[in-house]
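Morning!

This is the sequence you dropped in the shared folder:
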Amino acid sequence: MKHNQFTLVDKQYRVPFVLLTSLFFLWGFAHAILDVLNRHFQELLDITKAYSAMIQATMYMGYFLMAIPAGLFISRYGYRKGVVFGLLLYGIGSLLFIPSQNLVSFNFFLFSLFVIGCGLTFLETAANPYVTELGAKETAASRLNFAQSFNGLGCICAPLFAGMLLFSSDETQTGSGNVALPYTIMGIVVLVVAMVFNRVKLPDIQHEIEMDESGHRTSLWSHKLFIFGVIALFCYEIGEISINSFFINYVIEQGWMNTRQASLLLSFGGLSLFMTGRFVGSWIMQRVAAEKMLLVCAIGTVCCTLLIVLDLGFLSFLSLLCCYAFEAIMFPTIFALSLKGLGNHTKRASSFLMMSPGGGAAGPLMMGWMADRFGMSLSFIVPFFGYAVVFLYAIAQVRSIRQGK
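The structure's back. Tokens below.
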């Protein structure tokens, strides 16, 4: 079948694509609510920025530890069962916030987040590569960016929803809201979605076996751009999650607004630009090579984080918001480019790529440590170096298409 380069999804895959896209909203919500919890626990428990970063670190450690088991599970039982199992873990972890709230135990909260992280690992290991296969290879990055745009919508809704519940409009009052409430609602919704996916059929996609020039099966580790892609994705997560984790802290410490206003700015400012960036990026990449788009955006994030480190007042603030627009296409684009041409290695490769959110565990810890000692502005050197690696990866990808690889 001949594909038009502007066809995003093949006709026979439209229903599975719509169903899978709904999942992107759910895990976007789960990720972004952490950024509000980070500040909430600083106020409620009077803990340092570095210690509150354990919230992100614990959840993203679930990705690092469960990515390989998730890949093995999906390879054996298929994409649909991987999605259902992931949703079940996500729902159970969310409902564990009820006893965590009753015990007022930070460690129990962390365990609940770890269970959610394990569930999201299964979801993303299944959904991300599956979406790239639902149409022409040329539009894989565009298709994944479009689906990931709804991840951005979830990211917008989470700080708005949680910020209204957890923070008082009176900035003299510390956060004392019921943190279990948003998670209980989320857990119920997720379990209902799991029931839906348990009853639908997703078409299985067969991959060609990759052979070298001598007719032997190729090794996954012979693909150098895939290996570089794993590193770049890990470093991207360092940048993105670090910025999200301390966005509210940075805005407050610059004296621009209080906690409640900062959580609203995170939703309607940064994360709205993030979602818009993915929609626009998806449209552009139907017309421009994804490799070139990634390079332009990588240059943008490197410049913006450097301006924040230099502490240039309002210019640094604008640069912070611009980071969300430039970084928006990075995860789905790196993910799709890294899977390009892997054939029967795709499911296994996806599990290694999904170890990359481990960067979301390391980044906030490093940035929190630096913020406690050197101030918020200088701590943005952490995402700066993360995006610098993505820039080098983008250069390598552009060179590969020029060489016809």
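Headline: The mean pLDDT is 82.

More detail when I'm at my desk.
O.
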